[in-house]
Design a protein that fits this description.
Helices cover 69% and strands 0% of the residues. It is mainly alpha-helical and 127 residues long. The protein has 6 helices and no strands.
Amino acid sequence: MGFLTKFSPQIYALLRFVTGFLFFCHGAQKLFGWFGGEAQTGVPLMLVAGIIEFGGGLLVAVGFLTRYAAFLASGLMASAYFMAHASGGLLPIVNHGETAVLYCFVFLYMAARGSGVWSVDQAMGKG
């Protein structure tokens, strides 16, 4: 699959956009009840999670302050895993924490790599 190597920057940008958009949707569910969700703003922990998911997802998707937003999102997902899933069993597949683990490590990678191409940061010369 070496032919994909030359498209690595663009594929990473698509990963950043899709991941950020999906995270944004989780936040929109918690904050506004969008996308079939129920607003959970009455629960302080869910309100904070919703704000981080909504704002962080949007920032990651457009590639603005990506390192900071992704690092915060990664920490949120690590916390979510240990607070909501880990008590349900050792493995994420057993305790239904796969999504939290995957988001955690994808965002950690993005925090290390930065925004890359097709981003606001790159357009501003900070990519």
